[in-house]
Amino acid sequence: MAPPTHFTLNTGAKIPAVGLGTWQSKPGEVRSAVAYALKDGYRHIDAALVYGNETEVGQGIKDSGVPREEIFITSKVWNTQQDNVKVGLEKTLKDLDVDYLDLYLVHWPVRLVPNETSELFPLNPDGTRAVDRSWDQSETWRQMEEIYKSGKVKAIGVANWSIPYLEELRKKWTIVPAVNQVELHPFLPQHELRAYCDKLGILLEAYSPLGSTGAPIMTDPDIQKIAEKNGVSAATILISYHVNKGAVVLPKSVTEERISSNRKVIELSKEDLDVLDQLAANGKAKRINTPLWGFDLGYDDWYGPVKKSS
Predict the structure, then answer these.
(1) DSSP secondary-structure letter at 109?
(2) Helices (H), 151-231
(3) DSSP codes, 33-56
(4) Hey, which of 14, 132, 291, 297 would disulfide with 6, CB 3.0 to 4.6 Å?
(5) Residue 267 burial (CB count, 10 A)
């Protein structure tokens, strides 16, 4: 059976299974990448205010000629705007030059307090991040629920949220997050988080699905072996892994050839999926993205793989 091309959010809306990630895509490159991706058949763009390139993403959308209503656009409220989500949303809508978003996420369960050092990454006098540990994330979510009711966003969700943080938010939410976008790949499969989100009807989205220079997943021998067996690239295996497991996947590239190839998804056998699912447990566990917030966000592997007790 062919893998799905779309998933259904808990709002009933359809979301394309593969989207173009724009994190770390430089201004100047991202405009042409977005335009090319949409002309090539993508219908899902993942953006964020903190990426610093939403104006160019918006220009790329216009350049593509694809009607706005055919494109699923996601953005994220940044940590320094958690006390006024509406302001963050208005800036994103202005920069993207759109009237609404299909999905708006709380980028991290961390509030930063802006000061004279920086608007986006403020620091304390000792050089640590200016984090407000007393901030109640349910207040951020209350504002997200308000903008959802306003119609300016068609769905709301979270990013980088662990089970303990979701459990805390669950005590006060009146709208269940549609999505939890997290780092996800065979070295960080997050099986428990997946099961938890599935139970609540929260769709997982995978960022950094191809790893990074610090976690060379694509050169892993086990993944290479599965790629050879299926006659495709390691990237196709890693992207297909998520769609086969029921998660949206957000590969990022600014190269036309890779943008095109990253859209390819194949069906994987249960045997292949089992091998991929077990790589982390077999000693290859690796988390790539761990910003210096000063705490672990409820992840027991934030500071390194969890050692098994003998």
Answers:
(1) S
(2) 163-170, 191-200, 221-230
(3) HHHHHHHHT--EEE--GGGT-HHH
(4) 14
(5) 12
